[in-house]
Amino acid sequence: MTIKTRRQVLVDAAALGLSLVASGTLRAQQARHSKLVLLGTQGGPNIRLQRSETASVVVADDVPYLIDCGYGTMRALVAAGIQYRDVANVFITHLHDDHVADIPALMSHQWTGGRVKATDIYGPYGTADMVRAAIEFQKANTEIRIVDEARSVRPETMFHGHDVRATAAAEAVFKDQRVKVSSVENTHFPEESKQKMPYRSIAYRVDCADRSLVFAGDTAYSANLVKLAKGADLLVCEAMELATTRSNFERRVAAGEYQDNPEGIWRHIEGTHSRLEVVGRMATEAGVGTVVLNHLVPGALLEIPDSDYIQGVRKTFSGEVILGRDQMVL
């Protein structure tokens, strides 16, 4: 048996201590690691098998934070290996159906699946009303299961909607030990429309320990968004290839779609979304590291080469451009 000297014991102890510190630091670094999963990348409202409607999830320390919840989000969460019962915080950019269609499904399945902790849903004016309406939507399901299954937790005590102010300067929406979420108003709704309604559209910035991610939402050029995205690592932004989108629109109108004032619908599509060169301009002005193209139009409506999107953005942005696809992890 080898007998260690006192000096050897001290050296070994010091080495062990450094090892423990190093492993602890490594675990801390790993714990701070975040990932972005693109759940749905189709511009909409459009139902397509290749791409779900808009939704993304930031996972920090294995905790999911959901941004938008368009049709297909529930299946996409399952495909990504993310338990939908664990989604405690949802952030909605605006209340168009292609961004909120799966909110009632998320809420009802969380409750039916046995979640008892609170789920908070943040979004612009009307979000609190939407959450109350989703609770009413599942009223029959709730009452049946309370009787048949002796449930004791009611949905109205679990699900909380929060109306977020639409502001020109960034305001804090949410903060915990893992992320900080801030928002600004973007320019998805024209001024003339805003004069006739209280509804608004917003963008979010999610600051994690290791990086910052900005979600533009649906928007035309937005100086507020540029300020929000200053120095961010990732800008997740919608992208519209205009010429192809127009030809596809005309074909769909000829086939019988959009019969309720097609030109009014086209004015909205053309005027309130981000063309490729606009995406690049905003990214350049904000000084972001990488642009991730999301909410693609035409997307799966009419497949075009990836290079058409990317080259369009690179006309006004020299950084990295990633064309988003469903289930992409960044």
Helical fraction equals: 25-40%
List the secondary-structure elements in sequence, H or E. Answer: HEEEHEHHEHHHEEEHEEHEHHHEHE
CATH architect. name: 4-Layer Sandwich
Task: Provide the number of structural domains.
Answer: 1
Identify the strand order in the major beta sheet.
Answer: 7-8-9-10-11-12-13
CATH topology: Metallo-beta-lactamase, Chain A
The CATH homology group name: Ribonuclease Z/Hydroxyacylglutathione hydrolase-like
What top-tier CATH class fits best? Alpha Beta
- What is the overall shape? globular
Low-confidence stretches: 1-31
Distance, first to last CA: 53 Å
Query: How many beta-strand segments?
Result: 13
Q: Rg to the nearest angstrom?
A: 23 Å
- Per DSSP, what share of the residues sits in E-state strands of 2 or more residues? 15-25%
What descriptive keywords fit this protein?
330 residues, 13 helices, six-stranded mixed sheet, globular, seven-stranded mixed sheet, alpha/beta, 22% strand
What report would you give on this structure?
The protein is an alpha/beta fold. It has one domain (33-323): Metallo-beta-lactamase, Chain A (4-Layer Sandwich). Helix content is 38%, strand content 22%. It has helices at residues 6-32, 73-79, 97-100, 103-112, 127-137, 139-149, 155-158, 191-194, 223-228, 242-254, 262-271, 276-286, 306-314, and strands spanning 34-40, 55-60, 63-67, 89-91, 119-123, 159-163, 171-175, 180-185, 202-207, 212-215, 234-240, 290-297, 320-323. The strands form 2 sheets. The protein has a 7-stranded mixed beta sheet with strand order 7-8-9-10-11-12-13. Helix 13 links the parallel strand 12 and strand 13. Helix 12 crosses helix 13. The longest helix is centred in the N-terminal third of the chain and has 27 residues, at 6-32. It is globular. 42% of the residues are buried. Residues 1-31 have low confidence and may be disordered.
